[in-house]
Amino acid sequence: MAPRGFLLAALFLSCFFGFSHGKGHFSTLPRTLEVTASPKPGQVLKAGVDKINVSWVLNGTVRAGSDSEYKTVKVKLCYAKVSQVDRAWRKTEDDLSKDKTCQFLIVEKPYNPAVQKFESTVKRDVPTATFFVRAYALNSAGDEVAYGQTTDDRKATNLFQIESITGRHVSLDIASVCFSAFSVVALFGFFFADKRKAKSAAAAAAAQGQ
Fold first, then answer.
1. Rounded distance, CA 81 to CA 27, Å?
2. Which domains does the chain have, with CATH numbers?
3. Could you give a GO molecular-function term held by this entry (predicted)?
4. If you placed Cys at 129, which of 83, 160, 161, 164 could pair as Cys (CB 3.0 to 4.6 Å)?
């Protein structure tokens, strides 16, 4: 029984470490990527309409070869602290498996230490909030091993806003007005047609009575 118990314990531990592996802590990641984005501080972008240009490159001060495990780069839109207040679903956690700061992917590309650029239209499902851009370098297992971002958390600089789609559009408003006008005209048309039909029926009945 002892060997079997030992085997089960070992299996449990291996499963535990296997499931816990794959996500680290943000505070342990080196900031080795330089990231820039086109929105100016305070600029307001419209979801589904405006574009964001982002670029990233390996920091020139990084020691040669230290990026050998970088395989992929993910660039994301991230909520600024001001848009996380009283919103647990946007909460920042140091444990990356629980962190909800960066929920909107801009682009994912194979890692290249040279300057990389990408242009993207703000996705239609992005809500109204204040954002910054962050890039994660991932290893072959898909774990975050480094990062870079457009803001400094201590100063909250280079933040921009995105205005979500409200669900109303000028073309929809025009169509709605036209449909309403058509409905009113049709209603009056049916009313007068019915009234004329009633008059005709009354006249026919009177003629027959004579």
1. 16
2. 23-163 (2.60.40.1930)
3. nitrate transmembrane transporter activity
4. 83
